[in-house]
Design goal:
elongated; binds iron/sulfur cluster; alpha+beta; 170 residues; 4-stranded antiparallel beta sheet; Alpha-Beta Plaits; 5 helices
Length: 170
C-alpha cells in the first residue's frame, strides 16, 4: 500500500512541477513584453544592433582625432600592445603618422581610455566583428599624417612630453 501511495505521489509531483513551470512560461509568452531580440534577423525596421547595447557597453574603440594630442599614453598602457602609434615632429609641430588599434587582440579592459588625457579614445557600441580575414580587425584610424591637437591642460602637456624630430616606431 505504501509503495502504491509513493507511486501516485511521484506522478502528482511530476505533473504539478511541470505545470508550475509551464504557468511561468505561458505568462511570459502571452502577457509580458519581450526582453530579448532575435538577432540579427528580427531587430525591427530602422533599428541597429548598436542601438540596443547598454550605455556603458564596451565595443570597438573609437578615436576622436580632433582631440588626440599624440601623447602615446594609450599605447604605453595597453597590456597586450593592441595600439600602434607613430608620431613625427616637424618645425615644432607634432604629426600623428600612424594610429592602429588591433581589435582582434583587445580585451576591452579600458586602460587606454582611462589613460587618455584628452578623452580622445572612447568605447563605441560597435560589436560586430565577424570577418574572413583577421587582419580586417586591425583598424587603421588614419591614412595619412594628421596634425596632433594642442594639449589644453597642464596634465595633457606633461603627458605629451615626447621625443622630437624623429618617427617613433613601435
Ligand atoms: S581596451 Fe585594454 S586591451 Fe584594448 S586597446 Fe585598450 S588597453 Fe589595450
Ligand atoms: S591623446 Fe589619447 S588617444 Fe591620443 S595618443 Fe594620447 S592617449 Fe592616445
Amino acid at each position: 500500500m505504501k509503495a502504491a501511495a509513493q507511486y501516485f505521489k511521484n506522478i502528482w509531483d511530476a505533473v504539478s512541477t511541470t505545470a508550475a513551470g509551464m504557468r511561468i512560461t505561458m505568462k511570459y509568452w502571452l502577457f509580458e513584453p519581450s526582453i530579448t531580440v532575435e538577432y540579427p534577423d528580427r531587430l525591427g525596421k530602422g533599428i541597429k544592433a548598436e542601438d540596443l547595447a547598454a550605455d556603458r557597453y564596451r565595443g570597438f574603440l573609437g578615436l576622436n582625432l580632433s582631440k588626440c594630442i599624440g601623447c602615446l599614453q594609450c599605447m604605453r598602457v595597453c597590456p597586450i600592445e593592441c595600439i600602434k602609434i607613430t608620431t613625427e615632429r616637424l618645425e615644432n609641430v607634432r604629426f600623428i603618422t600612424r594610429f592602429d588599434i588591433d581589435q582582434s587582440k583587445c580585451m576591452y579592459c579600458g586602460l587606454c581610455v582611462e589613460a587618455c588625457p584628452a578623452s580622445a579614445l572612447v568605447f563605441t557600441k560597435r560589436f560586430e566583428g565577424a570577418c574572413y580575414d583577421i587582419n580586417e580587425l586591425c583598424i587603421r584610424h588614419i591614412k595619412e599624417a594628421v596634425k596632433a591637437a594642442a594639449p589644453k591642460s597642464k596634465a595633457e602637456g606633461q603627458n605629451s612630453e615626447n621625443r622630437t624630430g624623429r618617427i617613433n616606431e613601435y
